[in-house]
Write a structure and sequence with these properties.
It is found in: Plastid, Chloroplast. The protein has helices spanning 48-53, 55-61, 86-100, 105-119, 121-128, 144-170, 175-188, 198-225, 229-259, 261-274, 291-301, 307-320, 331-341, 343-360; strands at residues 365-368, 374-377. By secondary structure, it is mostly helical. β1 (365-368) and β2 (374-377) form a beta hairpin. The chain is globular. The structure holds fe (ii) ion (2 copies).
C-alpha cells in the first residue's frame, strides 16, 4: 500500500544538499531531506497592511474561537489520579492497561505517530511566527494575531501531553524510542513551503487542522471498536479542539478571499500544487529512514488518514470557501481557480490507479521501534 500514499503524504522529495548543514551533525544519521526552502518572504511587503487592517476583525471573529482556560479540559481529567491512595491509583492504572490490551499493535503505531506529531508543537509555533505581518514580534505581543497564536499553542499543548501520558501508562509502546523520535523531529523542524507568507501559512493551517480533526476522529472510532472507551473519548475530545481551530483558520482564509481574492486564490493553488505536507514529515527514530512513509502507510491501511481524506478535505475547503463561485478574478486568479477546482477528481483518479498497482504488489511489512521492533504490514 505504500505506493498509494505517495500522493497525499510524501510528495517526491527533491534533495537539497546545501540545507543539510542546518542539522547539527549529532542529530542526523539519515533523516528525510528538505524540499521547499529556497523561497522566502514571498508576500509583497505592501500587503502587510492587509493583516494590520484586519486586526480589529481578528479580535472580534478569531479570538472568540479560543476557549477560556477555566472552561478547557486538561490532560489530568482523563488520566488516573496520582494523588489518590496507592490502591486506588493502581486500580485505575490496571484498568487502563486492561482496556488497551486488546488494541492491535498497528493501532499503536498510528497513535504514536499522531502523538509525536502533536508533540512537535514548538516547531509549529515557530513556523507560524515565521509569517510576515502576523508573527508575535515580542513574545508577548497584544496584537490579536500573536494572541491567537500563543493561545492556540497553549490549547494544542494539551494534546501531546495527554496522548503521551496515556501511551506511557498503557505499557504498549517503547517510550524511549518514542521520545527519541520527538527529539529528532523537533530538532529537524518542518518544511511546509509557506515562504514566510501568511496567505500560504493560513491555507496550510486550514488544511492541516482539518486533517488532524479527521485523523483523531478515526483513532477515536478505532479505540471504541477495540474496547477502550476512555481512549475513544480522549481522541474525540482532541478532535473537537482541532475542529474549532480549523474553523478559525478557515475563517481567516475566507476573509482573505473577500479582501484580496486574487492573492488568496493563488495562495490556495500554490499550496495545493506543492501538496500539503504533513507537519511530521521529517520524523525519524535514528533507525528507519522511511519512518514517516511507513507510519503514513499504516494510517492509510487502517483508514485513520488516507489519500481519500486528502481529496475530501480539498473538496470541503473548495465548498466552504465557495471557490468555484468567486468572480472577477485576474487571469492568474482564474488559472489558480481552475487548477484548484479541478484537482480533487484528479487526485482520486491517481489514487485509484495507485491502489490498483498496490494490489498487484507483494504485501510488505516494516519494523517499528515504537512497538519494540515488531513487524506491521504497511
Ligand atoms: Fe493538536
Ligand atoms: Fe491542531
Amino acid at each position: 500500500m505504500q505506493s498509494s500514499l505517495v500522493l497525499s503524504f510524501s510528495p517526491p522529495i527533491k534533495p537539497t544538499p546545501p540545507l543539510r548543514h542546518l542539522h547539527p551533525p549529532s542529530a542526523i544519521a539519515s533523516p528525510p531531506l528538505l524540499r521547499h526552502q529556497s523561497t522566502t518572504h514571498s508576500m509583497p511587503p505592501e500587503k502587510t497592511h492587509i493583516f494590520k487592517s484586519l486586526q480589529p476583525w481578528a479580535t472580534h471573529n478569531i479570538l472568540p474561537l479560543l476557549k477560556p482556560v477555566d472552561r478547557c479540559w486538561q490532560p489530568s481529567d482523563f488520566l488516573p489520579v496520582s494523588s489518590n491512595s496507592d490502591d486506588h491509583f493502581s486500580d485505575e492504572v490496571r484498568a487502563l492497561r486492561h482496556r488497551t490490551s486488546n488494541l492491535p499493535d498497528e493501532y499503536f503505531v498510528v497513535l504514536v505517530g499522531d502523538m509525536i506529531t502533536e508533540d512537535a508543537l514548538p516547531t509549529y509555533q515557530t513556523m507560524i511566527n515565521t509569517l510576515d505581518g502576523v508573527r508575535d514580534e515580542t513574545g508577548a505581543s497584544v496584537d490579536p494575531w500573536a494572541m491567537w497564536t500563543r493561545a492556540w499553542t497553549a490549547e494544542e499543548n494539551r494534546h501531546g501531553d495527554l496522548l503521551r501520558t496515556y501511551l506511557y501508562l498503557s505499557g504498549r509502546v517503547d517510550m524511549n524510542m518514542v521520545e527519541r523520535t520527538v527529539q529528532y523531529l523537533i530538532s529537524s523542524g518542518m518544511d511546509p513551503g509557506t515562504e514566510n507568507n501568511p496567505y500560504l501559512g493560513f491555507v496550510y493551517t486550514s488544511f492541516q487542522e482539518r486533517a488532524t480533526f479527521v485523523s483523531h476522529g478515526n483513532t477515536a472510532r478505532l479505540a471504541k471498536e477495540g474496547g477502550d472507551p476512555v481512549l475513544a473519548r480522549i481522541c474525540g475530545t482532541i478532535a473537537s479542539d482541532e475542529k474549532r481551530h480549523e474553523n478559525a483558520y478557515v475563517k481567516i482564509v475566507e476573509k482573505l478571499l473577500e479582501v484580496d481574492p486574487n492573492g488568496a486564490m493563488t495562495a490556495v493553488a500554490d499550496m495545493m500544487r506543492k501538496k500539503i505536507t504533513m507537519p511530521a514529515h521529517l520524523m525519524y527514530d535514528g533507525q528507519d529512514p522511511s519512518l514517516f512513509e511507513h507510519f503514513s502507510a499504516v494510517a492509510q491501511r487502517l483508514g485513520v488518514y488516507t489519500a481519500d481524506d486528502y481529496a475530501d478535505i480539498l473538496e470541503y475547503l473548495i465548498e466552504r470557501w465557495r471557490l468555484k463561485k468567486i468572480e472577477g478574478l485576474s487571469g492568474e486568479g482564474r488559472n489558480a481557480q481552475e487548477f484548484v477546482c479541478g484537482l480533487a477528481p484528479r487526485i482520486r483518479k491517481l489514487q485509484e490507479r495507485a491502489v490498483e498497482r498496490a494490489k498487484k504488489m507483494e504485501p510488505t511489512s516494516a519494523k517499528f521501534s515504537w512497538i519494540f521492533n515488531k513487524d506491521v504490514m504497511v
